[in-house]
Amino acid sequence: MAVCETCGNDYDMAFEVHAQGAVHTFDSFQCAIHAMAPICEHCGARVIGHGVQSGEHWYCCAHCARQEGSQGIVDRVMAGMSG
Ligand SMILES: [Zn+2]
Ligand SMILES: [Zn+2]
């Protein structure tokens, strides 16, 4: 049995997430996202997709990155489609 590190649920279908050398245990993707997904620094949304990274900063989309003053940020999906 494993205990979810987000909510403490003792669940026999819990799974492990290996990230940056550490192992995390969760009972659901919701708890994994809650614990591990970065938060957009502009609007506060959980970044569950690819998101936009600008240096040490995370945003949910290029729009939010631009609102925070990051220049030259484009959504990766759009960048990939333009080539
Ligand atoms: Zn949980
Ligand atoms: Zn955002």
Provide structural commentary.
The chain has a two-stranded antiparallel sheet with strand order 1-2. A two-stranded antiparallel ribbon has the order 3-4. The mean pLDDT is 87. It is built from three helices and six strands. It has 83 residues and is an alpha+beta fold. The protein has helices at residues 29-36, 62-67, 76-82, and strands spanning 2-3, 10-11, 15-19, 22-26, 52-54, 57-59. The protein starts with a strand and ends with a helix. The radius of gyration is 16 Å and the shape is elongated. It is 25% helix and 24% strand. The longest helix is centred in the middle third of the chain and has 8 residues, at 29-36. Residues 4, 6-7, 9, 26-28, 31 line the site of one zinc ion.
Could you tell me which ligands this complex binds, including any ions or cofactors?
Answer: zinc ion
Largest β-sheet summary: 2 strands, antiparallel
- Please tally the β strands and state the result: 6
Helical fraction: 25-40%
Residue share in β-strands: 15-25%
By secondary-structure content and strand pairing, the structural class works out as: alpha+beta
Give the CA-CA distance, first to last residue: 48 Å
What is the overall silhouette? elongated
Multimeric state of these chains? single chain
The topology string of helices and strands comes to EEEEHEEHH
Radius of gyration, Cα only, in angstroms? 16 Å
Number of helices: 3
Low-confidence stretches: none
The spatial strand order of the largest sheet comes to 1-2
